[in-house]
Structures are given as structure tokens and as C-alpha cells.
Design a protein that fits this description.
26% helix; Nucleotidyltransferase, domain 5; 5-stranded mixed sheet; 31% strand
């Protein structure tokens, strides 16, 4: 018998589809044994089970992201300082947001995120109606990073860029020494329940321009490192798209390589396109 209480799921919604990744803890072994894609037009509560844990990816469009410099005084709580600095830059009060911060590879900085509470609550309610009530959520780009760091063969050197291209948008995350130093989104995913596809060519052109711009800013702010690799994932990722990006940016570009020992034979087939869902199964 499979104990559903030992299961954790991540759900990523884009382009009118719900992409669900399931992680099992059976017999002391961590295994990704389910990756499915279903339409959003019908409830699928029976697909998970009521005792499962479900976590949702939240778009960068529904959040405000800021890199915060932390004072060198070690007596200060860096997380609280980062949240305070972020809130000082917002127009609305703290009750309008969910707040969290992430450590970077520099002790003097934290990545602070303010999620729009109204938008997030709407997403959570939507998923609860279709599946089960989510236990939590994570920014898409940071979930993508967690999926790469925990389920893939690490490659690309000290400085690389992860990109999820799904539907009408592309989330990106720059990693230095396996820590996020910049995240964001290109394109328009303002309505996650809309199934209309976008112009992939135009989206990729915007993505290329954004990567160039972000690289210039990152290297001005800290020690300059060459971008050694771009890894693409998501519903629209493929080898042809990787080749086009590599040609345009002159940076080695490929799909990630999942660690096969962590996946069932069925799940490994689409693992490389589901880093966001994979990252949602990881507890911080």
C-alpha cells in the first residue's frame, strides 16, 4: 500500500495547463514518480489524495523582488533587516504582502520577495478548487533553481543562467556558486488560466535582450565572471531553441540533465522540462 501522507506535489500553471510533479518518500527513498500535465478546465482532486502536500509556483508578475544590502553588524537578523528594507520601498502596508528572503552567496546581500497577497490568494483558491488546498508556494524562478540544484547533474561552472520557457513567458534565474543573484520574468503571463499561446520568437528575442542587460548589471555590481552556461527548461524548451539561444549569445546552451537515479522510468521522460515543479517538492 502506498501511504499518500508521504507524498509531496508541486504544481506549476501556465498556458492553460497544470503541470504536476509528485515526490514519494516510500521506504526511506526519495523518488520522483509522477509528472503529469492536465488541463485547468476540470477538477482533478482524485489525482493527488487528500493527505498529500501540495505546493504552488507563483509568477514573478505577482511579486516585487529586490536585492537588499545587509549591514555588517552580526548582531542583526539579516532576514528581518531584508524584510524591513523591502517594505520601506513599497507603497502599501505589510498586510498586502507575503514576505520572504533568501541568502545569496554574498553575506552582505539577501534576495527579498514581496508577494502580492491578493493575487497569491486567488491562485491558491483556484488550485484548491481544482486539486487540494496548497500547503505553501514559491517563486517560479527560485523553484526552478531548487529543481536544478537538487535533481540535476550540476554543470556550467560558477556562473550560469536557468530559464523556464512556458507559454507566453520565460522566468529566469542567474546562479553564482549555486546561489540566486538575480531573478525575473520576460513576457506576459498575467492570467494563468488563459490557454492562448504567445509568439515564441518574440518572447525569445525579449529574453535575449534581458539576459544581456542583466549580465551587464550583475557584473557592474560585483566581481565580473563570464556566463559559462544557459540551461533551458519548461514546456517550450527543446534542442533547437537551445541552439538558437547559443548562437545569439555565444554561450553554451542546453537542457538540464536530470539524475536518473532519482526518477521512475516514466517520470524521467519529461523531467528536464519540469524544473519548476521539481523544485516545489524541496523544503527550504
Amino acid at each position: 500500500m502506498v501511504d499518500l501522507r508521504n507524498r509531496k506535489y508541486g504544481v506549476d500553471i501556465s498556458d492553460g495547463m497544470m503541470r504536476i510533479v509528485g515526490r514519494s518518500y516510500s521506504a526511506g527513498r526519495v523518488l520522483i514518480d509522477r509528472i503529469v500535465e492536465i488541463g485547468i478546465d476540470r477538477p482533478e482532486k482524485e489525482i493527488l489524495g487528500p493527505e498529500s502536500e501540495l505546493y504552488l509556483a507563483i509568477s514573478e508578475r505577482d511579486s516585487i523582488i529586490k536585492m537588499v544590502t545587509i549591514p555588517t553588524d552580526r548582531s542583526l537578523d539579516s532576514d528581518k533587516v531584508a524584510q524591513f528594507e523591502l517594505m520601506a520601498a513599497l507603497l502599501d502596508g505589510p498586510e498586502k504582502y507575503y514576505l520572504e528572503t533568501y541568502a545569496t552567496n554574498g553575506a552582505a546581500e539577501r534576495l527579498a520577495v514581496a508577494y502580492n497577497r491578493g493575487q497569491v490568494d486567488r491562485r491558491l483558491h483556484f488550485v484548491e478548487e481544482k486539486l487540494i488546498k496548497p500547503r505553501g508556494f514559491k517563486l517560479r524562478s527560485l523553484a526552478m533553481a531548487a529543481g536544478y540544484l537538487n535533481y540535476c547533474r550540476l554543470e556550467g561552472g560558477k556562473f550560469l543562467c536557468l530559464v523556464d520557457i512556458s507559454g507566453r513567458s520565460a522566468s529566469y534565474c542567474f546562479l553564482r556558486d549555486n546561489c540566486a543573484v538575480d531573478v525575473g520574468i520576460v513576457g506576459n503571463d498575467s492570467d494563468i488560466t488563459n490557454g492562448n499561446g504567445g509568439d515564441t520568437k518574440a518572447l525569445v528575442l525579449d529574453l535575449l535582450a534581458t539576459i544581456r542587460f542583466k549580465l551587464a548589471g550583475i557584473n557592474r555590481a560585483s566581481q565580473s565572471l563570464p556566463l559559462s552556461r544557459i540551461l533551458i527548461t519548461g514546456a517550450s524548451a527543446g534542442t533547437d531553441l537551445a541552439a538558437n539561444i547559443e548562437t545569439a549569445l555565444h554561450v553554451s546552451t542546453s537542457l538540464p540533465q536530470p539524475r536518473k537515479e532519482l526518477f521512475s522510468p516514466e517520470a524521467i521522460l519529461s523531467a528536464e522540462k519540469n524544473l519548476v515543479g521539481l523544485g516545489l517538492t524541496i523544503s527550504d
